[in-house]
Each structure stands twice: as C-alpha cells, then as structure tokens.
Amino acid sequence: MNNLSKNYINGEWVSWSGPTLDVHEAGTGDVIAKVPASGRDEMEQAIAAADAAFADWSESSLDQRIKVLEQLHAGLKERAGEIAETVCREVGMPIKLATGIQAGLPATITKTYLKMLPDFPFSEQCGNSEVQYAPVGVVGCITPWNYPLHQVILKIVPAIAAGCTVVLKPAEIAPQSAYILAEILDGTDLPKGVFNLVSGEGQTVGDTLIKHPAVRMVSFTGSTRTGGLIAHAAADDFKRIALEMGGKSASVILPDANLAAAVKGTVNNCLLNSGQTCTALTRMLVPADLHDEACELAAAAVARMTPGNPLEETTRLGPLASAQQRDKVIDYIKLGIEEGHTLVAGGPEAPEGCDKGYFVKATVFGNVKPGSRLEQEEIFGPVLCVIPYQDEADAIRIANGTQYGLSGAVWSADADRAKKVAGKLRTGQVFVNGGDFNPLAPFGGFGHSGIGREFGKWGLEEFLEVRSLQL
Ligand code: NAD
Questions:
Q1: How many angstroms does the Cα of residue 379 sit away from the middle of ligand 1?
Q2: How, if at all, do strands 464-470 and 129-135 pair?
C-alpha cells in the first residue's frame, strides 16, 4: 500500500498534508500506519466527483458493470493474503479466521453479485406499465472497524452494480483494507468519480457526507448511536438510509437440546473476533434446572480459548481492536460483578502473558438478570451472559426483551419446535440448530438494530428507486 497518506477522489490519489490518524496494531499497541484526518473540503470534492460521474454511470450497461466487478473480484483474490494480514493486525482477529472471513468473504460476496446480475430484473411488466428499477444516486458509505472490508464490499458492490456512484468513509481504527480496495478499483475499468475514498473522523468528514444535499442515500454500518444521528440528518432532506447497527442476540437452548453442542456453538459464535461481531450470541438462555451445567460447559469452552498473538496460525482468540474498546469491555466486566451476577470464568484482569496489546479474558457470567445493564447493553467483547428461564414463553420474552433485534439462535432436538420458536424471535436472522451462514440470505435488524437489508437481491434493491411508465 503506497497511498495511505492520500485520499482517492475522482480517479486520482490526492495528497494530504494535514493532520493524520494513527492506526495501531491490536496485538502490540504499536502505531503501524497513519491515514489522513481529512477536512470537510476533501469530502465535498469527493461528493462533487461522485455527483458528476452519476449521469454516465447510471446509464452504463450491465456488461460494463459486470466487467468491473469481475476485475474487482480478481483483485480481491490476488491480494487476499495481504488483506488477511492487514485486518488481522488492525482488528486482532486470528490470522486463520481472518484469511477465511476478513479476506475470503469480500471475494465471496462479490461473486454472489456477479452470479445474480445477469438475471436481475432491472425492469418488469405490470399490466400496461413498465416498472423500472433506477439507481438511487450518489451513495455515502460509512463503515465500522470490526469486519472492515466485508462491510465496505456489502455496500459498494451492490451500489456500483445498481448504477450508483459512491463516496466511502472507512473506520478510523481499521482503514487500510479500504485503501487496498481503492487500489484494486483504480486498476479496473471503473470510470473516474464512480468510487471515491475519503479518510477521516466521523464528526467531520462523516458529518459532511451524511448532510450533503447531493448525497441521496447513506448506507451505514456501526453503532446505534451514530445510526440515530444519520437518521435525523437524513430526515432533513429525505435521503434514503440503510442502517446496520448493534445487537444483543440471544441463543435460546430449549430443554430437549443437546446441551453440550448448543453451549459449544453459542460460545464459539460469541467469541468470534473476540466478541466484536454485531450478530454475536452474547446472551445464552438456558432452562433454570440446566443453568449450572450450562455454566460449567461454557467455562470449559472458554478455558480452551486462551488469548494469543493473532498472527500465529494456532491462535483462536485475539486481542480487541483498540485500547478504547478494551477499556470499555473491562468496565462492563466490572459492572457485571457490581451488579451481582455470578462470575463463572474470566474477569477484568489482563490475561497472563499479554502485557502489550489490547487483550481481555474471555468471560462468562451466570445467573444474569434480565433487565440488568449487563443483559441489555451491547458490550462488543468476549463476554457471555448465561440467563436462566422458566419455560418457553419466558425464554421468548427474555430473548425479545432488548431494544435490539439483529440475530439469534434456537436449539432443540425437535426441528419443528425449534423453527416455531425461531419464528417468534423479533430479529433479522435466527440460526436454527447451528444452521450455516448463507451469503445469499438477507441480513439486517429489527428495532434498534437496523433499517434495510444487505446481502443477495435484498442488498441490491436497497440502492434502487422504482419508476413506473404507464404505456
Ligand atoms: P461507530 O458508530 O462509532 O462508527 C462507525 C462509523 O461511523 C465510523 O466510520 C465512524 O467514523 C462513523 N461516524 C461516527 N460518528 C459519526 C458522525 N457523527 N457522523 C457520521 N459518521 C460518523 O461504530 P464502531 O464503534 O466503529 O462500530 C461498532 C458498532 O458497529 C457496534 O455497535 C456494532 O454492533 C455495529 N456493527 C453492526 C453491524 C451490522 O451489520 N449490524 C456490523 C458490524 C458492526
């Protein structure tokens, strides 16, 4: 990466000599890169470039769009090793997982759109009307740091496929994979101005992006707090918004489930990316009479997850992405103790042998009380709450008892029963008995977890306006 000190605007790498943002290595705390803390002017230039490019790109042929996305796919495959190591260092996800997820998923998602596009109905007949699906316009994309390239790809690939032009503001903590992406796109046939990258802080360049009248849609992934600011800003000039936000997802283990398999599945999911996953199953609901056994199984599972250097192939649990995130998670662990929940494993002290970097012990609380702050608030770290319930209705009530509704899981020996309970969860997705992740299925939240859907045809439709011609 040669361009980390620049922004990518109107097909050019534009130098920046102003203040910069430090990018830290999660496992050591060292500064490994510096990127621009750009100003509002740079963002306005990028928006103007995207606005100017829209007329032509919105009229581009499907073949032209497919060609560019094929070139992007090839570039993502070619630079996969570099992407995996970059995100592993920035975010702390162990390299083996980062290779499959942080580098692998962006290529997989791009491929799903390449397969879908040739047959996607950009127009259809409805009686005497031709219904056309037209690109929404200039799209502002704002992304977080936990799956930094994946979240960008989920926005820019369908946006470009729809005929939109894009300005991306990546997360400050993990911006480097967005630069790799910009370098790849720079080498494709994408016309200048269709994709622009401006690095900087949310309160400045992000704020300009969400309020600019030329931006017709904001596609955002991040915290519910920032999503709220975006929704308010969008209301002022009726921008379209797609918001992917936080979660506090429940894993409902029914009394007839294979307890060991269900606990293992829940713990693995909860600790993925050290708990820095919006869909993490952070609340494990178990029948009250199985609570102690479930806690023992969970404690044994986290004991096998000792934190280590994320660059080593054998590491399964890495550090958190930043000092701020580590401190926030430690504060939540202290809060859990203060609130009187049972500390079953882990705790607020730094793990042994991890005096550098942003490490936190994988932690399990038992007898967690519904309605407590530990049970209600998104922690975004390796902290599992085990919550006893009385009966199925109680479990569903507790599962649905937060402001969020992003993901969930149900476990039962009876597949029909599991599906029935899954249908009562007020969340955008539910994993039934450990069902596989599906990159073609819609992804998004109910309630304070989001508005809109990503992935598959639903992700593409977000970037399309509907026009009907009466003939
Ligand atoms: P964040 O909201 O602090 O930041 C996300 C992005 O918003 C960053 O690029 C940031 O610079 C920008 N931003 C911040 N303030 C802004 C403002 N005033 N105006 C415009 N932009 C602004 O979130 P984070 O801490 O980076 O990410 C963690 C959060 O993201 C968690 O809550 C997590 O659940 C959520 N998340 C959700 C999904 C999902 O798909 N639902 C996926 C990953 C992460």
A1: 14
A2: antiparallel
